[in-house]
Amino acid sequence: MDRGLARLIAGIAAALLTAGLVWAAGGPVAGSIALIGAGLAATLARSGRRRVDVPPAAPAADPAGVPADAVVEGLTSPALLVQAGRVVLANAPARALLGGHIVGEDVRVALRHPAAAEALARAAETPDGPVEMIELAGLGMIDQRWLMRIGAAGGAARLIELTDETGHHAAERMRVDFVANASHELRTPLASILGYAETLADEAGEDPALRARFLTVMTDEARRMQRLVEDLISLSRIEGDKHRLPTARVDLAGLIARVCDELRRAGTPRAADIACHVAPDPPPVTGDEAQLSQLLHNLVGNAMKYGAPGTPVTLALERGDRDWLRIVVADRGDGIAPEHIPRLTERFYRVDAGRSRSLGGTGLGLAIVKHIVERHRGRMDVASRVGEGTTVTIALPPIR
User: Fold this and answer.
1) Which 3-state string (H, E, C) describes 227-246?
2) In Å, how far are 24, 31, 234 from 35, measured between CA atoms?
3) Per residue of the chain (400 residues), what is the pLDDT tens digit?
4) Residues 306, 334 contacting (CB under 8 angstroms)
5) C-alpha–C-alpha distance, residues 304 and 308, integer Å
6) Tell me, what DSSP letter sits at residue 333?
């Protein structure tokens, strides 16, 4: 019998017995009835309190009750559940990457990577650390990098998770290339300066004409280093501001007029070739005026360097679709072959390295332009025909 029910019956019996003794001793019937009621109430109250104060223990959650396929499918990166060397479960990202046929296959066949097979063999006893894989599963992903992690999933089962590290690898490679290129670009003029300085310190310093020529070369190389350092600092600052939207209202028409005036007054041989055109009443844009001025100087400076002497260098401000404004800079020069265009905004990339250096280019101008455009949430397009010239178009969104 249930303990609570037994206690309830015993309490009722005790109440009836007490009431009977009171009545037998000559007490009033009402009093006996009252004692019965009080005894029953007290018994029920104790019974109720016991059920409230001491609730039955809830059963412990059973992790095995969660379906394994739901756990694996819930992972956002490709994941495989392996039992006895075969893939028993694969989530949607894994099936999209490796193919739906991998379920039921030997995991080594599914992954088709020697480093993965070796790690899985070691993981039969103890899960290994992350394994880097290139050209995963023979999918032709030459530039993709993956990390494979193996974890115990209960018993002899293993959970394999694949993480795409392509972006991190590309960023690291860009950083290494950037440091190497910057070091080379700084080392070259520095070597020239040191070489000429040592020669002047020896016998060349006695010849006034030779001394003057050497000093001119040293000055030019020092200025080249200065331009490179300034561009490196500028690029670093712009990259740091990339995620912070500009907030000022900029009058592009007025800015273009000032830039054109500055370039014409600079006294460069091609200053007379600059032609500026502005559409009537263009609306302002939200932007950083100093960066937009730098963008215009870089684009027009490139057009002046690589355009044919005596041909126009055009800077125009036009109205585009949906009230976007378009900055168009065009030259008539040698043009750029199609295979070079996608790489023009890479840092230190040059179509003709020798010509670029002889004209004073640092290889960072268009990289700076690209980052300025990205910060302003704009678009950049380069169109060129070999032997005809190049046109760069920058589209900037209107104020919303």
Assistant:
1) HHHHHHHHHHHHHHCCCCCC
2) 14, 6, 96
3) 445 545 545 554 444 444 454 444 444 444 444 444 444 444 444 444 444 343 333 333 344 555 666 777 778 889 998 888 889 888 988 888 888 888 988 888 888 788 777 787 776 555 566 887 776 655 555 567 888 888 877 777 888 888 888 877 777 777 777 777 778 788 888 888 898 888 888 766 677 888 888 888 899 889 888 888 888 888 888 888 888 899 999 999 999 999 999 998 887 888 889 999 999 989 999 999 999 999 999 999 999 989 999 999 999 999 988 889 999 999 999 999 999 999 999 888 888 766 766 666 778 899 999 999 999 999 999 999 999 999 999 999 988 7
4) yes
5) 8
6) B
User: Are 344 and 304 within 8 A, CB to CB?
Assistant: no
Retrieve residue 276's tokens. Answer: 């500026």
Q: Which are the contacts of 67, defined by CB distance < 8 A and separation ≥ 6?
A: none
